[in-house]
Structures are given as structure tokens and as C-alpha cells.
Write a structure and sequence with these properties.
The chain is mostly helical. The protein contains five helices and no strands. α1 packs antiparallel against α3 and α1 packs parallel to α4. The protein is globular. The relative contact order is 0.12.
């Protein structure tokens, strides 16, 4: 029962993560997906008070599960195998979440695109140097070149 409730909580977190999708990013043209996505975008961008409440509740519940698991481990009512199962389950479920608040991921992808598609050096070129590329519409920090050294 514990694992089922925990999995459902993670699924709610996945759904909530799609409320933070970039406004110019289209993941699917499916009408059903689009209608659900529009409601999630409204929650994430245009109803911030409710979004804050939802996120706070999710965080509170996740911390509650965490402390409950720690309690069970301390009482030796949970085996290492069960904990490993929960870790793997968490990783597999959250693999499908949107990388909310992680705009860096798209910047790193575009830096790789500069190398592989445009055959340019990302240390000398930024996303703004490729204004016709459709990826630039959902990127942040398009003015910067690659920020890290080669090593």
C-alpha cells in the first residue's frame, strides 16, 4: 500500500512538472494533450498562488514519506532491498517528468547543436548567432557562449 501511494504522489509530481513547461515549447500536437497542457500552463504561469499551494503540498508529502521511510529504517522494519526498490521506482517514474526550472538543459542541448549542426565552436558563438533556429524560441540566456571550460 505504501509503495502504491508513494507512486501516485510521484505521478502527481510528474503532472505538476508539466505546468512549468516553457510557453513556446510544443511537445505534442495531440488535441487531448494540448488541452491538458493549456490547463497546466495556466496553473503554472497564470495562477501562481494555486501553483504555490500545489507545489508546497507535494513537497510536504514527499518529505513526510522521506521521514516515514527513515523512521521505518531506524526501527528495522524495512529491508535494503525494499529501499533499493523505492529508489529504482522513483528514478523510473521521475524519468518522465519535465525538467521544470532547469533551463540550463536546453542551453546545453543548443550548445551541442552548435557543434553538430552548425559546425561552429560554442565558446565563440551563442544561440543569438543562429536567429532562424526554432530552438531559440524556448531558450533562456541566448546571449551567452558556452560557460564551462573544456575539461
Amino acid at each position: 500500500m505504501f509503495t502504491v501511494v508513494y507512486s501516485l504522489l510521484l505521478l502527481f509530481l510528474i503532472i505538476y512538472s508539466y505546468s512549468q513547461i516553457d510557453l513556446n515549447l510544443t511537445l505534442s500536437s495531440n488535441q487531448l494533450y494540448q488541452s491538458i497542457q493549456q490547463q497546466l500552463i495556466y496553473l503554472g504561469y497564470f495562477n501562481r498562488p494555486l501553483s504555490t499551494v500545489v507545489f508546497t503540498i507535494l513537497l510536504f508529502l514527499l518529505f513526510t514519506f522521506y521521514f516515514f521511510i527513515l523512521y521505518l529504517v531506524n526501527k528495522k522494519k524495512v529491508t535494503l532491498q525494499k529501499i533499493l526498490l523505492l529508489v529504482v521506482l522513483t528514478c523510473v517514474i521521475l524519468l518522465f517528468s519535465y525538467p521544470a526550472f532547469s533551463h540550463d538543459i536546453f542551453n546545453y542541448m543548443f550548445d551541442a547543436r552548435i557543434v553538430t549542426k552548425y559546425y561552429q565552436n560554442p565558446y565563440f558563438h551563442s544561440a543569438l548567432d543562429f536567429p532562424n533556429d526554432l530552438w531559440t524560441r524556448f531558450m533562456h540566456w541566448t546571449h551567452r557562449t558556452y560557460p564551462y571550460g573544456p575539461i
